[in-house]
């Protein structure tokens, strides 16, 4: 396995997504989020997901991503059990204060995502900056929605951050167009084709981009990648190593 990328090392410590584990949610509540206008909550067409966004275009973009995420999950016979709400806000902050792409809050099954216009500044200097911005944004929605639906279907809580993040990253990268995905994977210089897959919280913390690429490669390399997701729902995923999480 090659060393994690430098950008990944830096951003791994900074963090990309919040709500890394359902049992490790932010304790302080909504004060972590910037003030948001009261906006209409509108249901996406034909799916049990409501979106609160500042514009019709933003809502359509999010609903489009929602449809793709649910399609990927449906392929694995994983379905939403209850309605989910996605709230687009000026910025989403990690419990430690930094701005992040988004997070899933299991307390009220609500997804918070930083507005589209802010994402470009968050990905600057990272492998994600290579991706078309709207496509990247949709993949961020996919990531968080996978967290939400997996949470609704989990028979056991994920006991490691990497077990929690594997499905979100695998399907996030799967949701990209093939050209964007190839570009991302080439940037990472993933070596997953050697079969050298290692998933643990240390790698996730050191380089979430490498973890994301590896999760996708591992998921797609199997004849039945869905079995990995089902195993995670059962809490029996042997391919995730249990190592102590970094603080
Ligand atoms: Zn995540």
SSE layout and pairing:
Elements: H1 6-14, E1 41-43, E2 49-52, H2 56-75, E3 84-89, E4 92-93, E5 99-100, E6 102-105, E7 110-114, H3 116-123, H4 133-153, H5 161-174, H6 178-188, H7 201-206, H8 208-221, H9 226-234
Parallel strand pairs: 2-3, 3-7
Antiparallel strand pairs: 1-2, 4-5, 6-7
This protein binds zinc ion.
Structure characterization notes:
This protein has 247 residues and is of the alpha/beta class. It has one domain (13-234): Neutral Protease, domain 2 (Orthogonal Bundle), CATH 1.10.390. Helix content is 45%, strand content 11%. It contains nine helices and seven strands; from the N terminus they run αββαβββββααααααα. Strands 1-2-3-7-6 form a five-stranded mixed beta sheet. It has a two-stranded antiparallel ribbon with strand order 4-5. The longest helix is centred in the middle third of the chain and has 21 residues, at 133-153. The radius of gyration is 16 Å and the shape is globular.
């Amino acid at each position: 396995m090659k060393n994690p990328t430098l950008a990944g090392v830096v951003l791994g410590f900074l963090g990309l997504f919040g709500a890394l584990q359902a049992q490790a949610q932010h304790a302080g509540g909504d004060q972590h989020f910037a003030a948001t206008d009261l906006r209409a909550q509108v249901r996406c067409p034909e799916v049990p997901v409501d979106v609160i966004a500042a514009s019709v275009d933003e809502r359509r973009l999010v609903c489009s991503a929602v449809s793709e995420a649910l399609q990927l999950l449906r392929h694995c016979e994983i379905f939403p059990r209850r309605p989910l709400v996605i709230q687009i806000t000026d910025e989403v902050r990690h419990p430690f204060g930094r701005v992040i792409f988004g997070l899933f809050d299991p307390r009220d099954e609500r997804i918070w995502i930083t507005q589209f216009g802010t994402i470009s500044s968050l990905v600057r200097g990272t492998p994600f900056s290579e991706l078309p911005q709207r496509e990247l944004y949709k993949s961020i929605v996919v990531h968080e929605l996978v967290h939400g639906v997996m949470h609704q279907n989990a028979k056991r809580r994920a006991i490691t951050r990497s077990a929690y993040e594997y499905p979100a990253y695998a399907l996030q990268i799967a949701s990209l167009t093939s050209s964007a995905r190839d570009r991302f994977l080439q940037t990472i210089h993933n070596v997953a084709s050697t079969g050298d897959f290692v998933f643990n919280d240390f790698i996730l913390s050191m380089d979430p981009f490498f973890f994301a690429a590896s999760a996708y490669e591992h998921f797609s390399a199997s004849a039945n990648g869905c079995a990995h997701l089902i195993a995670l729902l059962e809490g029996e995923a042997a391919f995730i190593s249990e190592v102590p999480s970094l603080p």
